[in-house]
């Protein structure tokens, strides 16, 4: 896997990344991915791909679990069915890219990112489902933002693939938020703001192991 090493030209590349992202997504996240994470990604290209593949598989699993748990919600069933198919396709595509590049797929321990968000999930529905859907929106939004931030530093093949993912992950983020708002007549903006703040803390605080959703290098 080829990633252009060297000094980040931050201003130009942030503008380019922002141009790829839906305005609603940029407004949703509290912060951008720190440049130090990008530098970390550049020296861990194999782990980037391996953990990306695991993230796609986990995203499909999350969608499937929602399909099984909430069988009385037609819109959720439709959205999650489509999302699960797309995430599994992305998993297959990443694994295919890894095989072409001689990267062996293996298990990696999870970052603290998803668990750091899920530990705040409330116990009973509909509050539980609202929280899970907000977290889903955040994970998809951050994934989308990181794809966009990485694109200027990737080889042509991988950059082209990540551009397609920006579009689909951006749509997934919007679907999750739509479903979250559908669960109640009350506004959930305060709950969204809570999780957005938790997410920003996770991606800007130190981590000892690089992962696709890790924070900055310790």
UniProtKB/TrEMBL annotation:
Top-level taxonomic group: Bacteria
Sections of the chain in a coiled coil: none
Pfam families linked: MiaE
Gene3D superfamilies for the chain: 1.20.1260.10
InterPro entries: Ferritin-like (IPR012347), Ferritin-like_SF (IPR009078), tRNA-Hydrxlase_MiaE (IPR010386)
Name of this chain's protein: tRNA-(Ms[2]io[6]A)-hydroxylase
Lineage: Bacteria, Pseudomonadati, Pseudomonadota, Gammaproteobacteria, Oceanospirillales
């Amino acid at each position: 896997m080829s990633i252009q090493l060297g000094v980040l030209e931050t201003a130009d590349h942030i503008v380019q990344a922002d141009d790829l992202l839906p305005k609603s997504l940029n407004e949703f996240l509290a912060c951008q991915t720190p440049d130090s994470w990008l530098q970390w990604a550049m020296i861990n290209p194999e782990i980037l791909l391996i953990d990306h593949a695991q993230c796609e598989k986990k995203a499909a699993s999350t969608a499937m679990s929602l399909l099984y748990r909430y069988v009385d919600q037609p819109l959720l069933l439709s959205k999650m069915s489509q999302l699960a198919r797309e995430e599994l396709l992305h998993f297959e595509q990443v694994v295919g890219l890894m095989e072409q590049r001689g990267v062996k797929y293996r298990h990696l321990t999870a970052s603290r990112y998803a668990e750091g968000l899920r530990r705040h999930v409330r116990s009973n529905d509909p509050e539980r489902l609202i929280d899970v859907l907000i977290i889903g929106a955040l994970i998809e939004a951050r994934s989308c933002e990181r794809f966009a931030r990485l694109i200027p530093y990737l080889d042509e093949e991988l950059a082209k693939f990540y551009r397609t993912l920006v579009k689909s992950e951006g749509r997934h983020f919007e679907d999750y938020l739509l479903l979250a708002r559908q669960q109640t007549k009350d506004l959930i903006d305060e709950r969204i703001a809570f999780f957005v703040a938790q997410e920003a803390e996770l991606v800007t605080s130190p981590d000892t192991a690089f992962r696709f959703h890790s924070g900055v290098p310790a």
